[in-house]
# Entry
Amino acid sequence: MRIALDAMGGDKAPDVIIAGALESLEFLDQDDELILVGPQDVVNQHMSCPRRYKSRVHIVDAPEVIAMDEPPVDSLRKKPKSSIAILAKLGKTHEADAVISAGNTGACVAAFQMRMRNLPNVNRPGIAVTFPTFGGPVTICDVGANISCKPINLYQYSVMASIQAEHLLGIKSPRIGIMSIGQEEAKGNEIVKKARDLIKSDPNLNFIGNIEGRDIFKGICDVVACEGFVGNVMLKLTEGAVDGLFKAIKHELMQEKLGLGLALKFKPIMKRIYQKYDYNEYGGAPLLGVNGTAFICHGSSVERTIKNAVIIAKKHHTLKINDKIMDSLSHSSVGTTDVQTN
Amino acid sequence: MRIALDAMGGDKAPDVIIAGALESLEFLDQDDELILVGPQDVVNQHMSCPRRYKSRVHIVDAPEVIAMDEPPVDSLRKKPKSSIAILAKLGKTHEADAVISAGNTGACVAAFQMRMRNLPNVNRPGIAVTFPTFGGPVTICDVGANISCKPINLYQYSVMASIQAEHLLGIKSPRIGIMSIGQEEAKGNEIVKKARDLIKSDPNLNFIGNIEGRDIFKGICDVVACEGFVGNVMLKLTEGAVDGLFKAIKHELMQEKLGLGLALKFKPIMKRIYQKYDYNEYGGAPLLGVNGTAFICHGSSVERTIKNAVIIAKKHHTLKINDKIMDSLSHSSVGTTDVQTN
# Structure
């Protein structure tokens, strides 16, 4: 298969993107190929491709670059030759079987949606991030693709993220929760309440009901449906809380009499925790619901993130996750439009 | 002053509520009095009040109790003699200068709003929780009083929480952020964008713009305005993330060769962190914008939480936070109704 990467996307592009992509080749099959999308000269300049891989790595020229903080839709209009726009085009024409970017998330979502279009019956795509937690991996959808969420979107996020958790992570009949502000049925805003009724009405879903913020880390569910705004805040808040806590621990360790010694002993433990509960393990998050395999990575992605994103994107494509989503939604008793809120 | 407490509110009521309340007396003035609201016989049975305090502790009978998971408005209607309903009545009639409950949050919000009414010019009250973080305390409003938020509410939360941070926590000209999904101006949903314009237009506010979830722990702002749904998820998510991380650390410590020894050494550090970054320190969260001093505590409050809530409620009342809110809103150039979304 052919996997295309946005060589210019992310805080550390193009170096870590290109290096991570090349690293992934070791884990791919002999007939898998990579396409690096970016200004040809820049990509060439930053790439030192081992000879054995040369025939499997291609460059597609994209002379323009969308910066991380540019307004998504505007920048796509102004820069039709940007790496993100060209990447989406490769996804649309099937010149690439999977596309990956660690660039401007808003621009990626807009480009992938506009170019690649949605799968049949999908109302709005959603980004499905997998959180590694002490209670096991939890897949959260959506974390920012869609900030004007309707009940039908939350229902479809449950269906799509559940299929992903089952097939990509091997979780049988994933337990689905809907993010709310209390476990009782009466809790939540109108969108959540209506979405809950839709999810509940689908006998193919293993729905456990409302969950609260703290439940994410308790191992009580495998999939969480939430609005993109809420999911985005959750994702970044968790990142900040973990970083802040580690800082606090480090600070307190250094206050001890034997602080440095204790800190040294504690270091490998912190490292192991970082490794186990590091979202870089999962590489990137698929934009579920678009007609193709599209992965969006964190702006601060490192080589390992990109390598893992390539490997997981391949798995996503090979396992035909999209076929399973189409099949499930076409047999769903829940409609595809949102009559309740229109 | 007279401070009334819901003796039946919280997971560990009535024991910890009564004990915490009695503990607080040591930190109050000689003419301060406590009113315990609950079924008279139950409160009497669980109270062992030192003789020197007897004249300062009163019981107001409230034979009914609203459970933590009852639907708020329904339960208030069905149980007019519940401790929460009677508490709100004491707040309304000024028989109590401050009211405190660790009971059903929704019922507290509904009762305090309905009985005590809003301060002049306040559109909707909001719960303002103070997060202790490595970067300093951050006051977040709203965390769940209002889940159908309008721009004017977010503006007023900024004003009210800023006054609280300045006077209660001693933070000069608190830096205010609005919770969004990116720091750029273009990011956020419609409510956030409109609220940002309102906050920006008020020259008395020290507004720093959009913040993201991770920024809460970075020390870049002192006050965060957010929708009640989002704030509630944030509050509980942080709780869960910290608990989950400590569990993970404990687990990893025990995997070490000298695990138990290391765990023992690490214990006081964890304890210190728990103390420093424990929301119990701040006791409870005021429902800002109601006409009176009303504090809502976490359902899992312990004695220390209740003791601190009493002390902080007294400070809140003594510092005349509500007068400052009224003064600020009456001089605000921003209206009190939400023409933009109506």
In short: The CA atoms of residues 116 and 233 of chain A lie 27 Å apart. Chain A has eleven helices and eleven strands. The first helix of chain A runs from residue 15 to 24.
